[in-house]
Amino acid sequence: MSTRTVIKGGLVITASDELHADVLIEDGRIAALAASGTPAAEAWTAERVIDATGKYVIPGGVDAHTHMELPFGGTFASDTFETGTRAAAWGGTTTIVDFAVQSVGHSLREGLDAWHAKAEGNCAVDYGFHMIVSDVHDETLKEMDLLVEEGVTSFKQFMAYPGVFYSDDGQILRAMQRSADSGGLIMMHAENGIAIDVLVEQALARGETDPRYHGEVRKALLEAEATHRAIRLAQVAGAPLYVVHVSATEAVAELAKARDQGLPVFGETCPQYLFLSTDNLAEPDFEGAKYVCSTPLRPREHQAELWKGLRTDDLQVVSTDHCPFCFVGQKELGRGDFSKIPNGLPGVENRMDLLHQAVVDGHISRRRWIEIACAAPARMFGMYPKKGTIAPGADADVVIYDPHAEQVMSAETHHMNVDYSAYEGKRVTGRVETVLSRGVPVITEREYTGHAGHGVFTPRSTCQYLN
Predict the structure, then answer these.
(1) What does the pLDDT look like over 12-61, one tens digit per residue?
(2) Is 112 helix (H, G, I), strand (E, B) or coil?
(3) DSSP letter for each residue of 227-294
(4) Residues 358 and 369: beta-carbon distance below 8 Å
(5) Is there a contact between 63 and 354 (Cβ–Cβ < 8 Å)?
(6) In terms of C-beta density within 10 A (0-12 exposed, 13-18 middle, 19 or more buried), how is residue 323 classed?
(7) pTM of structure
């Protein structure tokens, strides 16, 4: 059965264009665009007609950094693939790329299979996987090649968390050399974890146990140092590099310098670094624990450089690093010892709205909003133009967005499975109204009409910025 949908009268915004156009959807894909009111558009017939007059018609968001059900610090991220992808849909995100985890002593395949089992049949929107590589040896390196062939084309390594995910420089270099050969992309958590552990130990010995010290020991200079080292290791290996959750002025400077040298180096930041700061970490009565994530929140003055990096394309992508832990019973594990607070913030539902607020505030243009939230992550991780744009042949992942609606962000009204909002009480202009995933309405005029199992695994090609 062919199903047709027409979206009429909206302003279609992609990374490259803005046009008043009607959109024809057929069998889950964009079939055609035509200027609104023209004979071509008026001739279309469809079972479902959506009136987008006065609204934006934008591609579904691509969140290339989420952690559903992640085991961390003796507990698990509180969103399942079911709750997390439902919340993503509510926030206008129609594709997530989550991280499968290789445990030390186990194969990449075991880790990937475990994550497929968690996600399959449970997702409201489409998903892909990156692979966290925790144990680099000859067998792991061979498996990396196989995973690239299966559409898992990116591998995350950690310069932080000794004893958990940490890789030393030799392991990082070997993985980078392998990915240079296979076309894979290394994603790097760039913080000097060995030095940070010393500073953590010293702070606790001084009795500095509150959440704010989490930000003080994870110094911006140690993020910059690790970013510099990762860039040089990638240069030695002849490999591209993607640095995740860039939070600090000094780290942005390292990326900008490398890109000015023509190196294939890319950077991502997250809404928490653009909108929150160490002021939040310092909130009294342990409230600061809600904002513990790594890299940590920085003093507010770092935000201007992050926005500048997004405007100049020294930072290409805004992802969430969505990794929620409830305040009660999870964040509280670190009362009396900030190093035991599970690291992570909820955000998968908030990203598109916060970035639209950035348009309203004059930080970025409308097209840049779509670039950093949809098109660039899709290109970076080999899904464009299937995902990330509105063009004939693309998946019909489409959001009808009301740019004038006002909302107040709150744990009372969000759909993430977590007992607080990192943006509690924040007023923003702009709101998702209707969301289609491959042509199927998952949010219909602010009602959830999707279901677990609609979302499917999306194999990815290699990074499209390198072709």
Answers:
(1) 999 999 999 999 999 999 999 999 999 999 999 999 999 999 999 999 99
(2) helix
(3) HHHHHHHHHHHT--EEE-S---HHHHHHHHHHHHTT--EEEEE-HHHHH--HHHHT-TTTGGGGG--S
(4) yes
(5) no
(6) buried
(7) 0.98
